[in-house]
Design brief:
Largest sheet: 5 strands, mixed
Strand order of the largest sheet: 7-6-4-5-8
Family: Belongs to the CDC123 family.
Low-confidence stretches: 1-5
Pfam families: D123
Mean pLDDT: 93
Radius of gyration: 21 Å
Oligomer: single chain
Structural class: alpha+beta
Distance between the termini: 53 Å
Amino acid sequence: MIEVELDRLEFEESEEEARKIKETYFGVNMDKFITSFDEKNETMPTRTIPLTVQQGKALLHLCRHFKKGTVMENEQDLMELKQVSDNIEKIMKELNENNYRDGFIVKLTSRSPKDITPNHEKTMKKYRELLETPRFNPNQFTNVDLKRNAHWSALYFASLQCLRVYNAQEAISLLSQSSRIEYDLLLDLTFESDFSLGLVVRPWDANMTLESEFRGIVYNGELKCLSQYFTQCYLESLEKDKEEIEKHCKEFFSTTIKPVLQEHAPELTNYIVDFSLTKNEANQFSVKLLEINPYLTTTGVGLFDWEKDTEPLFENPKSQFEFRILTEPIISQLLKDPDSLVKSWRDIITQLE
C-alpha cells in the first residue's frame, strides 16, 4: 500500500501544462550547457551523474518516506540508491585527488535542496558560531538596524553552509528532505519516457560570501539587469565596489557567456544567470558562471520584480542596463510584513534590542 502511494504522480496542472513546464524548466539544466565552459577559468568544476528512471523513482520514494516519517524497506529502491551513492562517492574521491578538499555541493541538474536549510539544526549551530566572528559580530554596531542586519546576514550565510556535504550519505539525506527535489523528480517522472534529470557534484567554494553572488536577467541574448543575490541583506562593500562589479559582470557576459551559448545553445536567448565574483588581496576581480535558470516568473529576479519590471526593463529593447543593490538595511521594514521572513528567523530578530 505504501509503495502504491509513493508512486502516485499528481499535479495541479493539466498534463499539457505540466509538459510545457518541464520543457521550459529543464531546458536550462546544468548538464545541457556547463561542459561548454572552461571549468578552471569560466565556471566551477562540475561533474554530472545521469540518473536512470528507477534511480529517479527511488530518490522520489525516499523524499516521500522522509515526509511521512517512515523507513524505506523496498529492496529494489535500496539497491538503486546504493548505486547512486557509489557514483557520488566515486566523483568525490576523484575531486579530492585533485585537491578539492573543502567539501561538496550535490544537487539535481535542475536545482539544489536549499529550501530545507533555513530551519535545519546545522543552521542554528553555524549561526551562533558566526556571531563570534569579526564579519558578523553584531556588537560592532550601535545602530539597531545594523545589528539586526548582522544577525540576519549571519542566518543567511549559516543556512548556505548547510548545503556543504562531505560524503554521499550526507548528500542523499539532504536531497531527500527537500520539497524542491521532490517536485522536480515528480515533474520529470510524470513523462517517464523523457526522464532527463541527473545529479551534479561540485567542490564547495570556501571563498564564497554573501557579497560574491549576483543574478542577471538576460532577454534576447542581452544582459538587461543585474542584482545582488541575497536581497534581504545589506552588504556595505557592494556600495563601494558597485561600478567595478557591474563592469566585470558585463564584460564576462559579453566575452564569455554570450558567445559560448550562441555557439553551443543558440536556442537559449532568454534566461536568468548567476555570477560568482571574487576580489583578491590586490583588489583584482574574478568572475565565473555559477548556473543558468529558466526565464520563468517562478524564478527569482533579485531586487527586480516580474510584474513591475518585465515590460519597462527586461523586455524593452530601449531600456538602459540597471544594477540594483541595497543601500541600507531593510530588515526592520521587513519585520512589518509577517509573510516576508522565515518565522524562526523572524522570532530571533524580534527578540533583539
